[in-house]
Amino acid sequence: MVRVISVDEHRENVTKLLGTAPVRELPLVDCAGLILAEDVLAGVSLPPFDNSAMDGYAVRAADLAGAPVELPVTGDIPAGLVDVPPLEPGTTQRIMTGAPMPPGADAVVMVEKTDGGVARVRILEAVPVDNHVRHVGEDVREGTVALPAGTRLGPAQLGLASAVGKDRLRVHAPLRVIVASTGTELVVPPEPLRYGQIYESNAVMLAAAIRALGCEVEIVRSVADDVTAFRAAIEPKLRDADLLVTSGGVSAGAYEVVKDALADSGVEFTKVAMQPGGPQGCGRWHGVPVVTLPGNPVSVLVSFEAFLRPALLTALGHTGVHRLRVRAKLTEAMTSPSGRRQFRRGFYTHKEGQVTGLVGPRGGAGSHLLAAFTQSNCLIVLPEDVTAVAEGDEVDVLLIC
Ligand SMILES: Nc1nc2c(c(=O)[nH]1)N[C@H]1C(S)=C(S)[C@@H](COP(=O)(O)OP(=O)(O)OC[C@H]3O[C@@H](n4cnc5c(N)ncnc54)[C@H](O)[C@@H]3O)O[C@H]1N2
Ligand code: MOO
């Protein structure tokens, strides 16, 4: 007999199975989308020195008290100048954006507020101390934590890491995932279809979903329902894999290739109390974690949301692994099977000022209705003990985009 387990128990099993991705030191450009495994300490302050925010003239603000005034220009300070002479009282130096302030100067007058003179300059208005000066450490102080462990490394975070002097970071390495779809009926586009065949879609969906989390994905599309062919197609790839995800071949039919190939090899097949996505399995094959998903395309995506996404995010070091859950009023009645958690595809809208949004189902409960999934932005979750909900009832909604 196949064991029946809850959605939460299977999620915990898959999360435990995947564990935590190894920590690696990678060049900054290869860290995009990954999670920082340790704090980044600032090797320098930002800015590293007082500098000008404008092209103009470095001055002592007190010298402009009687503006308009004319002052001698004693030199130029381009960005990158490392030996900056001090500013004598009653003089100015031309200064460019990002260039270091000369010792003794306490303000910058932008060039537009002057006659732009090179030997002498006429300054039209007085300015306060600190005018257009960017001070050392006002963004980040040397020695402090610039980025804490657990940070997701997007463009701004990688820019900051570089700005404080890092060229490599210790991150949770991307997992290498093999995605395999099984089914003798599957044909890969653009090959022509014969009656009884369908175009393969699960491997494409899973690869896209898993890649979007920051994993490396290799796909093996349309393995025939034959145990020998399945083993021959997958086994050689396991050596370099952190996870195998399969679709199809796990229910109660006569040709369940994944079940037949893996049931005696360390993978447990169960029925999860949910709809869609009932037939599930997880375990290890040759030591590599394996998660087996049912073949119906909507079941694949719902299973990804319920199990793989949170488990992969946890493995990659993320802390927020769950989708945003909100309450919404149903725009039409729905039914749900007793004892199973139903995940229906829906469209959620929320008007400004409204406390509770509205949600309506897209498509029926059938797990083959992929087009309806493309018109959805959420999953409507009906708990195990609910068999019917009426128009106007409040339900839980998981926002998936
Ligand atoms: N007697 C029973 N029959 C079924 C049960 C059951 O409990 N008892 N469960 C049903 C449920 S629920 C699901 S879900 C499916 C799961 O079956 P499998 O995982 O064995 O999947 P397949 O039979 O291989 O495929 C199901 C369905 O999906 C299509 N498919 C499969 N792979 C792909 C792909 N890569 N791209 C596009 N479409 C795919 C396949 O052609 C089938 O139509 O079992 C029910 N039956
Ligand atoms: O439980 Mo199945 O995954 O409905 O189609």
TrEMBL record:
GO cellular component: cytosol
Pathway: Cofactor biosynthesis; molybdopterin biosynthesis
Reactions catalysed according to its record: adenylyl-molybdopterin + molybdate = Mo-molybdopterin + AMP + H(+)
Gene3D superfamilies: MoaB/Mog-like domain, MoeA, C-terminal, domain IV, Molybdopterin biosynthesis moea protein, domain 2, Molybdopterin biosynthesis moea protein, domain 3
Similarity remark: Belongs to the MoeA family.
Function: Catalyzes the insertion of molybdate into adenylated molybdopterin with the concomitant release of AMP.
Protein name stated in the entry: Molybdopterin molybdenumtransferase
Annotated source species: Amycolatopsis xylanica
